[in-house]
């Protein structure tokens, strides 16, 4: 008993019905044509009228393969039965309205199949259990409630934060102010500096922002075409990413070149920082570096786009690490030819560090209004200490020179370098 | 393997069966139509029209000449497989939940529902394996199940016993000649309905599927539980595969809860267990509703499942299915 199985249609393509909009053809349907091709296939051309009344030409190319199969004579006989019921007078072969071939299923029996599935489920259970077991602890009074629900939240600051308690602060501030005023004579000490000099002013993002910052990385040198999703995928390799923020230009929608990536765990963030820092960025786009003075004109974000940290002497070969005073301090730099691009490499820093630097810079700037003195020196030193990665930079002497030697032009006027820096900070760094 | 999807029914499938030669698949659903399909390519051979209510069950005789169906219109009908002609209608006081031919096809049993003042019964008719013959209108045997209603039943080897599964999880053995109750066991949890009973190829043992999430392999002669297969979902059906020593279980969340569960949670998969080691070896996904019935081809080359989603999925096993062996089996082969 032999059986003919049609394998195909290999190429069932429908021609555009518009081509068949012919008056002559509209009335009579041509008979189906079967042409034999050289490679043993057959091309069947059929014409039919579709449900919507359009005439359609269908071209099918099929290959017929004869598969000889020995079957029970009873089965062979049943194969020849005529169809009945709803299938009466339907052509031979499976009908597309009742019979379809589903997606391929890979079924591979395995010993211990259950174990693998159960393991996965167990792991998931474990995770949820872990989440369940997380103890709620108030950051103010260490009670087992949320900090926001704490009965002392109006009167006490969270544990471990400097200047806890409004009453404390008032007392301290009063003492400090008195002391400074007594020692320094006429110089005014702003409130945020009255406590130990390295005090931090009010910041945007609330006083608990620091907590999140601990596991947040600041990524610069991000490609202009990057998407948050790309970054997330890239950084998820190191741990659970809770938040990705990619700064985008409001008008163009393009990335501004920097992003923040928050992790669940600080250790994960540390790992990511270590592994990804200096790694090659998405090679999708390489920005042709415009001349430096062009960048200045274009705005400070151009710095972010082109900065690179390939080598310690980065300032000589490629763009500067950060928008800093350097370029402004050396006006001849502005006329340097465009730096060669060595491919974009991510530069990753802790946001917490960055914030501290920002806070210090902020303090220093404010102090610029005061004549240089002990307080100024102390503050600039403290700012130096808080930026450990600045230490090995070869241009540090420029900094030192600026911070310590530059005389403010006039009372109330901020030096040009600091103006730009302030502009940068105000626009981009206050997160 | 590429399953063939049969979408000839408009409502949930209730039973699917292969013919003895494995070439034709019959399916019944809650719409009132019976369908016959060629198993090799999923082509529909025809439909059988006449029932007035949802269909619960069908069976085909070993020679693939006669087809018996039963449904919620309180009738049991006999059809000619080849033409779709209705040969005989038996009327009852309540719906028919299960029909089954004996091994030689000369007897047909029907299980009637307990409803409207009628007790659940098992009725047996003598069948003449001829489409032209006049079939008997009177039953040759009637067993009344007055304790717990029977949900499934079948003839054991040589038509010696009738084995019935009940809504309270019990299995009863009756003498097929006299209708005398011989044995009763409770292999499953109390008050958990037995949903399916399928035979091994030689009908010396059978597998029961139960709502208590287990399936059990039980001997026909002394109702001894040989094996237990534990699943994580209520079971609607269980089948024993010839050639390879597997069993296939089908089930899923109850139909009424389906809308509140996702396809993943619902566990709408056919589960394969090793028959001897009682260990799960794999699952086949595809249905997006509970599996109401799984049937294995008597040649062991494939299986099909009917789901609450209205589809029949026909699977032809491929090589890994036949190649799979446990370590101990392989070691045994090498000796």
From TrEMBL, chain A:
Name the keywords, alphabetized: Cytoplasm, Initiation factor, Protein biosynthesis, RNA-binding
Q: Where is this region: Disordered?
A: 1-40, 306-345, 361-395
Subcellular localization is given as: Cytoplasm
Q: State where composition is biased (Polar residues).
A: 306-321
Q: Where is the composition biased (Basic and acidic residues)?
A: 382-395
Matching entries from PROSITE patterns are given as: RRM
**GO MF annotation terms:** RNA binding; translation initiation factor activity
This protein's GO CC annotations: eukaryotic 43S preinitiation complex; eukaryotic 48S preinitiation complex; eukaryotic translation initiation factor 3 complex
Question: What subunit structure does UniProt give?
Answer: Component of the eukaryotic translation initiation factor 3 (eIF-3) complex.
Describe the family membership recorded for this protein in Swiss-Prot or TrEMBL.
Belongs to the eIF-3 subunit G family.
- Name of the featured protein: Eukaryotic translation initiation factor 3 subunit G
Organism equals: Cryomyces minteri
Source taxonomy lineage? Eukaryota, Fungi, Dikarya, Ascomycota, Pezizomycotina
This protein's gene is called TIF35
UniProtKB/TrEMBL annotation, chain B:
**What is one Pfam family matched by this protein?**
EIF3I
Record-linked InterPro entries: eIF3i, WD40/YVTN_repeat-like_dom_sf, WD40_repeat_CS, WD40_repeat_dom_sf, WD40_rpt
Q: Which UniProt keywords apply?
A: Cytoplasm, Initiation factor, Protein biosynthesis, Repeat, WD repeat
| GO cellular component annotations of the record | eukaryotic 43S preinitiation complex; eukaryotic 48S preinitiation complex; eukaryotic translation initiation factor 3 complex, eIF3m
GO BP annotation list = formation of cytoplasmic translation initiation complex
Primary location group: cytoplasm
List, alphabetically, the SMART domains matched: WD40
List the Gene Ontology MF annotations in alphabetical order: RNA binding; translation initiation factor activity
Localization: Cytoplasm
Under Gene3D superfamilies, the record lists:
YVTN repeat-like/Quinoprotein amine dehydrogenase
WD repeat residue numbers: 6-47, 48-89, 159-184
Protein family according to the UniProt entry: Belongs to the WD repeat STRAP family.
Q: What does this protein do?
A: Component of the eukaryotic translation initiation factor 3 (eIF-3) complex, which is involved in protein synthesis of a specialized repertoire of mRNAs and, together with other initiation factors, stimulates binding of mRNA and methionyl-tRNAi to the 40S ribosome. The eIF-3 complex specifically targets and initiates translation of a subset of mRNAs involved in cell proliferation.
Oligomer and partners = Component of the eukaryotic translation initiation factor 3 (eIF-3) complex.
The protein in question is named: Eukaryotic translation initiation factor 3 subunit I
